[in-house]
């Protein structure tokens, strides 16, 4: 600042000083920064006094005085000894500040220039916060020193007024910020709805921090997801700007450091820098701050080891189109981030809570009935008692699980009537055949040999019989030695004839029986139906078979079908008891193994009076049969596996849930 020439009279000097003070008073009322106000005050103070220079010393965090503002001190604090001189003067000024009154002290002796310190303590809000110091030459007249002291005090009053106004403005700003922060906390903690909480965080944070846009992202597994954007009802997740912001936030969250972009991208991790440059192509923001949101770390455990850092909750993105102080923005955002982290963590925990929509009303009801005033023991005993009582009072469906197959009601098995081999198979899998139609042609070498032997014996016997008849008709004996015999040879011929007739009858009967057994080797369908066996031609052709061996199945697939079930023998009692208690057949509900999720119904029609043994598991079971509507089931297949339930009425929840356990305990503990 340039001043006019020095005054020539005392009145003129007084008027100039008053003018300077009036100017400073006006400046002190203006919202100036200390860096703008104090240089003007010190410049005017130096002009109004005979000082070498002037300075404002402020109390630091540790209570020591620090040189804050100065003017014309280059000669007093030359560079080589500036630090040492400032330290000695600070010690002198600390003594004056402790007294709380204006005083003069000799300056540092390490400099070439001799001076003394004329200091006036500065007070604001009832506390000393600094010193206004004049650097004056030694051996000044007393009148000048007194005049300079009065002037310094007047300027100190202006400095104190400015400091008070500054503090007042700071308090007002802080009060405004605190009110905004309280409103922010009140709104974001209004409820636990996750979408509403993120929406409020985004919009209220923008109002509190006076930025252009705030985005809230949640951390889902290993990715960030945009939940809310200020001023937008629902973010468009397909847009490029949202996708790039998500990738940038993911990189920042993984780096575990706050990102502050003010126009430079230097000194950033490569992955963050690349994502930031990509995002800057989509946004006009000049200030971008991304703050990872994490829950507060728990205290150290008893062993003194620090716990693992918690998983991130998400990130808060602050953007401003106008250039502003980014570090100050982050300082103002600290309480906002703390409240947002807590609100987001609570809302996320509530969202992950199962049956939250039922637990919240239940909590209100319990609070109204005085539940929370009960002791911890009663809080456990009462719910257990209610649960046990409800289990015995609430009825539910009681059913027994069974397994089975769908088969045609009419089906026949074709067996091998004798030992032999398959000569020809005349049908294929799935072929429809009529009753009596030839299915398989068998051959038996044993039958062929027996037949040839019997036919030969029959022919021999018949030839001998014909010879005897001829002999008798010619009066000759059958035996060549008949000439030496008597008349009884004719009786012998009669006996031979009778024997041969009997033999012929026996051989003829054996031949007819063999013919019937040979005719039985031609296997015919016992019913009209469909051949069920797979690849019968490849499996049976030229295959040796034994008597009674099953060769083929034929079933009437167009007729009625039945459901054959296997009831475990240990569950038979429940089904029989339910049948005795019900006048109607027991319902059966079943599902196809190849069609899970779709149920069909039927009725239990027949319960076997025997117990069979499962060949695979060696578990005893009782065969059952049930009817059903085959029109409801498409693509019927013989032997289609099903899983079913036989409905045995209604029992209490306690019985249905524990009957198997009770039976097991009885079987192994009370046998």
Major sheet attributes: 6 strands, antiparallel, barrel
Tell me the span between the first and last alpha carbons: 111 Å
**Average pLDDT number:** 84
- The unreliable regions are 298-302, 484-488
The helical percent reads 40-55%
| β-sheet strand percentage | 25-35%
Please compute the radius of gyration using only Cα atoms. Answer: 57 Å
Structural class: alpha+beta
Total helix count? 15
Strand order of the largest sheet: 11-20-24-22-21-25
The general outline is: rod-shaped
Overall number of strands: 25
Structure description:
By secondary structure, the chain is an alpha+beta fold. Helices cover about 45% and strands about 25% of the residues. It contains 15 helices and 25 strands. The strands form five sheets. The protein has a six-stranded antiparallel beta barrel. A five-stranded antiparallel sheet has the order 2-1-5-4-3, with helices on both faces. β3 and β4 form a beta hairpin. α6 packs antiparallel against α7 and α11 packs antiparallel against α12. The protein is rod-shaped. The relative contact order is 0.06. About 0% of the residues have low confidence.
């Amino acid at each position: 600042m340039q001043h006019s020439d020095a005054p020539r009279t005392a009145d003129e000097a007084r008027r100039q000083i008053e003018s300077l003070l009036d100017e400073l008073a006006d400046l002190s009322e203006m919202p100036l920064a200390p860096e703008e106000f104090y240089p003007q005050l010190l410049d005017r103070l130096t002009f109004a006094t005979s000082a070498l220079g002037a300075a404002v010393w402020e109390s630091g965090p540790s209570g020591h005085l620090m040189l804050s503002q100065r003017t014309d001190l280059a000669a007093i604090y030359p560079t080589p000894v500036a630090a040492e001189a400032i330290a000695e003067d600070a010690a002198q000024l600390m003594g004056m500040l402790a007294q709380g009154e204006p005083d003069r002290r000799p300056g540092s002796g390490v400099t070439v220039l001799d001076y003394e310190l004329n200091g006036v303590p500065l007070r604001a809000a009832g506390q000393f916060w600094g010193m206004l110091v004049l650097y004056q030459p030694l051996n000044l007249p007393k009148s000048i020193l007194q005049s300079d002291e009065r002037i310094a005090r007047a300027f100190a009053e202006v400095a104190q007024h400015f400091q008070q106004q500054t503090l007042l403005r700071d308090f007002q700003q802080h009060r405004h910020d605190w009110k905004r922060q309280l409103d922010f906390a009140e709104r974001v903690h209004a409820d636990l709805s996750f979408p509403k909480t993120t929406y409020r965080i985004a919009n209220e944070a923008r109002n509190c921090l006076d930025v252009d846009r705030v985005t809230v992202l949640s951390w889902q597994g290993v990715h960030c997801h945009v939940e809310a954007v200020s001023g937008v009802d629902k973010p468009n997740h397909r847009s490029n700007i949202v996708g790039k912001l998500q990738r940038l936030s993911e990189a920042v969250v993984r780096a575990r450091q706050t990102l502050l972009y003010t126009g430079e991208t230097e000194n950033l991790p490569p992955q963050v820098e690349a994502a930031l440059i990509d995002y800057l192509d989509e946004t006009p923001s000049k200030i971008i701050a991304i703050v990872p949101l994490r829950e507060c770390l728990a205290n150290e455990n008893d062993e003194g080891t620090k716990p693992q850092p918690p998983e991130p909750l998400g990130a808060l993105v602050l953007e401003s189109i106008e250039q502003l102080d980014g570090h100050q923005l982050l300082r103002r955002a600290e309480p906002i981030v703390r409240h947002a982290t807590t609100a987001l963590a609570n809302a996320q925990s509530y969202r992950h809570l199962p049956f939250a929509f039922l637990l919240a009303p239940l909590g209100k009801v319990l609070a109204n009935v005085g539940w929370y005033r009960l002791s911890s023991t009663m809080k456990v005993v009462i719910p257990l008692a209610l649960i046990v009582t409800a289990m015995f009072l609430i009825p539910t469906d009681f059913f027994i699980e069974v397994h089975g197959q769908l088969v045609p009601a009419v089906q026949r098995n074709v067996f091998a009537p004798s030992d032999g081999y398959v000569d020809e198979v005349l049908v294929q899998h799935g072929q429809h055949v009529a009753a009596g139609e030839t299915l398989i042609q068998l051959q038996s070498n044993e039958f062929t040999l027996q037949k040839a032997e019997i036919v030969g014996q029959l022919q021999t016997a018949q030839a001998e019989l014909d010879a005897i008849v001829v002999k008798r008709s010619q009066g000759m004996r059958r035996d060549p030695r008949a000439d030496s015999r008597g008349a009884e040879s004719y009786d012998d011929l009669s006996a031979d004839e009778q024997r041969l007739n009997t033999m012929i009858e026996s051989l003829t009967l054996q031949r007819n029986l063999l013919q019937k057994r040979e005719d039985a080797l031609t296997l015919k369908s016992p019913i009209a139906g469909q051949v069920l066996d797979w690849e019968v031609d490849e499996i049976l052709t030229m295959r040796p078979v034994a008597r009674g061996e099953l060769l083929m199945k034929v079933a009437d697939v167009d007729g009625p079908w039945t459901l054959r079930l296997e009831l475990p023998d240990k569950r038979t009692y429940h089904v029989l008891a339910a049948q005795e208690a019900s006048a109607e057949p027991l319902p059966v509900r079943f599902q196809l193994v190849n069609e899970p999720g779709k149920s069909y119904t039927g009725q239990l029609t027949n319960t076997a009076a025997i117990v069979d043994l499962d060949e695979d598991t060696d578990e005893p079971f009782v065969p059952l049969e049930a009817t059903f509507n085959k029109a409801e089931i498409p693509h019927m297949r013989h032997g289609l596996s099903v899983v079913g339930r036989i409905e045995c009425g209604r029992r209490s929840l306690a019985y249905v849930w524990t009957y198997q356990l009770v039976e097991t305990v009885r079987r192994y503990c009370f046998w």
